[in-house]
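Below is how a single chain appears once it has passed through the pipeline. First comes the sequence as given, then the structure the pipeline wrote out for it. We keep one example in the README because the format questions we get most often are answered faster by looking than by reading.
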Amino acid sequence: MRDIAESLAGRVAVVPLYPMTWREAEGAAKGAFLKNWVAGDIGFEEFASPLPPALYPRIWRGGYPGILDLPDHLVGGYWQSYLQTYVERDVRAVANIGSLQTFGRFIRLLGALSAQEINYAHLGRDLGVDRKTARSWLETVESTFLWFSLPAFSRNPVKRMAGRPKGYFADTGFICQLQKISAPDAIGGHPLLGALFETWVVLEIIKVVQAWPVAPEIHHFRSYGGAEVDLILEINGTLFPIEIKAKSNPTRNDGKAIDTLRECFPKERIGPGLILCAVLSPIRLDERLFAVPWWML
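Resulting structure:
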């Protein structure tokens, strides 16, 4: 972009291309659930499924188009080559990185930190670099589309709110390779299961809403008391809170953070909450809270 002489303002459309959604990858019909939900239409009857799709293979493979049809035994080699060319070519083109070897370790570390708020001082200390360098490197990874962050929700400075952005790696397939997860079946018992599931669901939602005529603002919420809402979609002046849980038996307690959000912002219009999880079919947990299968996205 910096080498283009003309700005092209008014003469070019900039379209972000994320990895493919699971529906795109499998040629399935587009899901309309999220759009119906923010429009106030929560009809679940059409979404009943006696046999839900398998989740772990989708998390493990990710959504890069070039990898979707590769045999499993070639996937690891693909990602090793991707990481090497990314570090040695792409990053060199946009930033002056002193040690490419340390930067490669930085990428691997980020894979384990997806779905977390990032503390630059801790990140730098783990790598033996200062806070400023860690922050600069993360900005480089974000500018080259391997990482993105969601801002904390707030209307104005409120002492109960924490303001750190929450970060996500841009593809769960890449995370699995960086963390040496050799097969889809290994995800179920892995310590990163929750982070992988949250990252995958957040990515699916972002891919879906970017195709809407007006995409919602997307935030996360965390109070100083520790209550966290993974996602908040804000559209037409209404907040739609989403919790993401890698479990198949959600309860009303899983929506407590959404209750905290309502208490912290009593003047806001807040729509019904969702818990996106591995439940087999939609469940109404109370008047304003629903548990919904991930495959409805």
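The chain has a mean pLDDT of 88.

See the next section for the split statistics.
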